[in-house]
Design a protein that fits this description.
Length: 125
């Protein structure tokens, strides 16, 4: 939790939200800019309220975060997903991400993760 708070306060963190009537939070995505030798944005979290799932919000948030990444010069996007999270895995695949290596015991409860990657178009000149 402390690590997540630190991440949210970082200047490399991007957060996009969808609000419903009365300002209630309906969906959110958290991304991180990583200025590596191959600059790549990491999608840290994407979540849609159960009452709003299946309406394309997850897809739209990922597209919007990819646009943020491109604006910041990122040339790739990555995400880690629990192997059991079939909905999230299907979402990333529907958005053009390719499943890569399995990450043994990636999560605190011992579950494996799967790495997803997508090449983003280069920055407009
Ligand atoms: C995963 C999650 C973000 C998807 O959001 P969503 O708004 O329901 O997804 P979308 O409606 O944009 O779906 C886009 C595509 O992803 C795929 N998809 C999304 N959820 C799916 C599911 N549960 N099962 C199968 N495919 C799914 C489909 O291909 C879908 O396209 P289609 O509607 O044309 O079939 C949402 O279910 C969620 O918040 N889950 C709980 C939190 C979570 O697990 N987050 C990911 C880890 S950080």
């Amino acid at each position: 939790m402390r690590q997540f708070r630190r991440l949210l306060a970082s200047p490399t963190c991007r957060i996009l939200v969808v609000r419903g009537a009365g300002g209630t939070l309906v969906a959110e995505i958290v991304g991180l800019l990583r200025h590596f030798s191959i600059p790549s944005g990491r999608i840290y979290k994407v979540a849609v309220h159960p009452s709003a799932q299946g309406q394309g919000l997850g897809r739209r948030l990922i597209a919007a975060m990819e646009a943020e990444f491109r604006r910041a010069g990122m040339v790739a996007a990555v995400a880690e997903v629990r192997v059991s999270n079939t909905g999230s895995r299907a979402l990333f695949e529907a958005c053009g991400y390719q499943a890569g290596e399995r990450l043994p015991r990636y999560y605190a409860d011992g579950e494996d993760g799967v790495k997803y990657r997508k090449v983003l178009a280069s920055r407009p000149s």
